[in-house]
Specification:
heterodimer, A: about 375 residues, six-stranded mixed sheet, six-stranded antiparallel sheet, 21 strands, about 35% strand, B: about 300 residues, mainly alpha, two-stranded antiparallel ribbon, 2 strands, about 0% strand
Chain lengths: ~375, ~300
């Protein structure tokens, strides 16, 4: 059963600047759904429209089977965790968690039960009498989560809840939130600009850009099969490399012959009639070659040693390309390097529209099909 | 090597500590403070000390100090029935103005704090009294209170009531002046509260809206506690202003009728400039000063536990 449905949602400010256009989404019950995109892409506005904090101008928001588009926030029956946590500074952790609940007809025993459950799940037992100013960033974040838990609402909206935490804590909280969601069977819509969070937490993710949904899918679907160059570049770190190349009969080449990538049969077929092609190659799909003038030639401009892997930044066709190599590889700045491309994992995009022609994932299926 | 490094660090931190208070720094600091020291001395400290000094003397009608009188001026002032009556009027005036100004100022600010189209008009109207001088406001209220042509009495007649001598009946005069004072002061209080409410983080209101709390719960549980420093400031300033109200009393009633509005400040003015008794007026001014200091101290002490600073 779908938990939330968005139908043709649009939003503009001052009637001319479109913030969101024709958003259609179905979020399933007990799903961890992530809205990811760069700053200003409209993801927070979309979340706030689901919460009822922004007016819905066009389209409908369904929560369960109720159309809540024109209802005030309290009738959306959701809980929300804000980026700033929205904790009441003068209230203790206990009062913050039970905020608003005392005003409803809930018995004291139940309130106490809800509080105990929420603080236990968020490991806040020791801090119930503290004020937010006496808590660390991570603890405050957990109070905000505990408030959402205590509200007992099935749908929880989270607006960049981890962005104020340091990297280590963020990683820890990612796991905690995901575990909580699984254990409590909540439906969570989670907004973030951090694609790592999206990939690691989401059951499904929707990538937004310029107020439009670019792609919806599981993290691996989006990673392996990006529909356009924006999604391909946004998801994955380090970013996917892009090169504008010219197509010959059996290969993609650059004018100065620094790049010469052979095409598989299915790629060549898919590219029929196209002279200019944008190629997308993930950094981990570049392999260092011993052969001089291999498929890709470049000059090393930076090296990052991470211990278990080496990130090489090299200059190719006046583009900064990145290769992620296993182990510890040694390079000298200015050194000429040659790479081979994992052809099965190469993405092809139309040069003008930047849309996908053939994705690596499809190529793998085709290749497997051929073998079979 | 490591020991040397630690030693160097200790030395450098010692240098930082000794550097903070040199004579040169103090001179520079004083130089920066000089303008305010000069201005405060000239317009606050000197008149204050001079008042205390004058209050200890019997003075001539030309404000010359005649002879040292010790606390005699204070004793005379406090024994005088006019002064005692003035004290009573002042307390009634403060009690009639401060709570209502603060409550109405806050309620108006709360009602107009939401971002709704056209709200700016009401904000302008409610804050506009701040831009009107006491003299102009007093004239306006003179017209309103006029026993024959005044609008208030016209309203009374409309409802079949007898006209009231708002400013001429000792029973009503102090409340009439207090009412005009509330009107005059509400603009300032309103602006302070509106600014304070608007500076509360929006997400707190949104979190409350999502929980679906009632307006009264929101006000009691969120807005009033968060605004407690503002309430403290506004109440303190209002009390001091009310104790010192002069312009509207001079314009509307001149302390009358039958000394009903003869508050302490107005009495100080009368003793000083009408009765030409600077010594006694100074003693009364010192008494008023002490009253205000004591009230402010009590208020500070009382509100320490209630005021929440973020």
């Amino acid at each position: 059963m779908p938990s939330i449905q968005l139908k043709h949602l649009s939003k503009s400010y001052d009637n001319h600047e479109k913030v969101l256009s024709d958003i259609n989404l179905t979020i399933n019950d007990k799903e961890f759904f992530v809205l990811v995109g760069p700053s200003g892409c409209g993801k927070s506005t979309l979340l706030r429209m689901i919460a009822g904090l922004e007016t819905v101008q066009d389209g409908d928001v369904y929560i369960g089977d109720r159309n809540v588009s024109q209802l005030p926030p309290q009738d959306h029956k959701i809980s929300m965790v804000f980026q700033s946590y929205a904790l009441f500074p003068h209230l203790s952790v206990r009062e913050n968690i039970l905020f608003g609940l005392e005003d409803k007809k809930i018995s004291k025993i139940e309130l106490e039960e809800r509080l105990n459950e929420a603080v236990k799940l968020t490991s806040l037992e020791k801090y119930v009498d503290r004020k937010p100013k006496n808590l660390s960033g991570g603890q405050r974040q957990r109070v905000a989560l505990a408030r959402a838990i205590a509200s007992k609402r099935k749908v929880c909206l989270m607006d960049e809840p981890l962005s104020n935490l340091d990297a280590e804590l963020r990683e820890k909280m990612r796991t905690q939130i995901k575990e909580l969601q699984r254990n409590l069977g909540m439906t969570i819509i989670y907004v973030t600009h951090d694609q790592t969070e999206a990939m690691t937490m989401g059951d499904r993710i929707a990538v937004l850009n310029g107020g439009e949904i670019q792609q919806v899918g599981t993290p691996l679907e989006v990673y392996n099969n990006p529909v356009n160059q924006f999604v391909a570049g946004f998801i994955g770190t380090p970013k996917m490399n892009f090169l504008a190349l010219t197509r010959t009969e059996n290969a993609l080449i650059s004018n100065n012959y620094d790049v010469n990538i052979p095409l598989t049969v299915s790629q060549a077929t898919a590219l029929s009639g196209q002279n200019s092609v944008d190629v997308g190659i993930r950094p981990e799909h570049l392999k260092l070659s011993e052969v001089i003038n291999s498929q890709l030639t470049g000059t090393v401009i930076n090296v990052e040693q991470l211990g278990n892997e080496t990130i090489v930044v090299f200059d190719c066709l006046e583009h900064k390309m990145i290769a992620k190599l296993k182990g510890q590889q040694l390079f000298v700045l200015g050194q000429k390097v040659y790479f081979e491309v994992d052809l099965m994992n190469m993405h092809l995009f139309e040069h003008t529209t930047q849309r996908r022609i053939l994705a690596a994932f499809e190529e793998v299926s085709v290749a497997e099909g051929c073998v079979g | 090597m490591q020991n040397k490094l630690i030693l160097e660090q200790k030395q450098s931190s010692a240098k930082v500590q000794t550097k903070s208070f040199t004579g040169k720094d103090l001179k520079v600091a004083l130089l920066f403070l000089l303008p305010s020291i000069v201005l405060f001395s000239l317009f606050v400290f000197y008149p204050m000390l001079k008042t205390i000094y004058t209050s200890l003397f019997l003075t001539s009608t030309g404000s010359k100090l005649v002879s040292f009188a010790g606390i005699e001026n204070y004793l005379i002032a406090m024994k005088s029935s006019v002064f005692q009556n003035g004290f009573k009027s002042t307390i009634i005036f403060v009690l009639a103005t401060v709570p209502l100004t603060v409550i109405f100022g806050f309620l108006l600010a709360f009602l107009t704090s939401e971002k709704i189209r056209g709200m700016a008009f009401f904000r302008l109207i409610f804050s506009s009294t701040m831009g009107i001088s006491v003299a102009a406001s007093s004239i306006f209220w003179q017209f309103m209170f006029n026993p024959v042509n005044g609008y208030l009495n016209k309203v009374m007649l409309f409802f079949g009531q007898k006209p009231i001598g708002w400013l001429t009946d000792p029973k009503y005069a102090i409340y009439a002046v207090a009412f005009a004072t509330i009107w005059m002061n509400i603009g300032f209080i309103y602006i302070i509260f509106l600014g304070a409410i608007q500076s509360i983080e929006t997400s707190l209101f949104e979190a409350a809206a999502i929980q679906g709390v009632k307006k009264t719960y929101l006000m009691r549980k969120v807005i009033i506690p968060i605004l407690s420093p503002t309430f403290y400031f506004v109440i303190t300033v209002s009390i001091i202003n009310s104790f010192q109200a002069f312009g509207q009393i001079d314009m509307l009633t001149k302390g009358g009728p039958n000394n009903a509005t003869n508050t302490l400040v107005y009495q100080i003015y009368q003793d000083s400039f009408i009765n030409l008794n600077s010594g006694r007026a100074s003693a009364e001014a010192v008494i008023l000063f002490i009253i205000i200091v004591v009230i402010t101290l009590v208020q500070t002490k009382f509100s320490e536990s209630k005021v929440h600073y973020q």
